[in-house]
Amino acid sequence: MPVVNVVDQNGEKVSQVELPEELFNVKVKPAVLHEVVTMQLASRRSGTASVKNRSDIRGSRRKLFRQKGTGRARRGDIKSPLLRGGGVVFGPKPRSFAYKVPKRVRKLALKMALTSKLKENKLVVLKDFGLKEVKTKGFLQVLSALNLGSTLIVEDRKDETLELSSRNIPYVKVLRAEGLNTYDILKYESLLLLEPVIQTLEGRLSA
What we know:
alpha/beta, six-stranded mixed beta sheet, 7 helices
């Protein structure tokens, strides 16, 4: 069972914690990670691109000129897709790009992402942030002491002081344990877990 140090906000070791074998010691398969990340990104697409079809164009439905005898190509109404200002044929309309992969695959990918951070030594377990007031400067001091840059922080419960102190920093994201996902783990260079989160994740992913 993997064992990691638990540090305080000054970066000093205060204890050790055992990480669940089934979460932090699985075989990492890039194909599974790719499949789940692609699904997440597809679900985030807005799909709001839209064009006006023939029926959406404002104009008369009168035939522009008679069918025969003019020497010109036959023509319908002014909303024809062949005319400037007419409707668009087969253009995009609002749609959802979302699709699902099996739940067990999503769970497996999350375990692989956690394992990859541990193997790359990019996993930090923190006892507590200990922020007494909403202050970005204090938050940055903790990150500096832990020698962290681009970081995903996972908390076990809502900590408004932590969330407000970190919201102005573009390379940091704070998530609660129930919202942890594969894409965000892989997107950020480091993963910082508050100590109680480990037990929460074990209960969520071991079932």
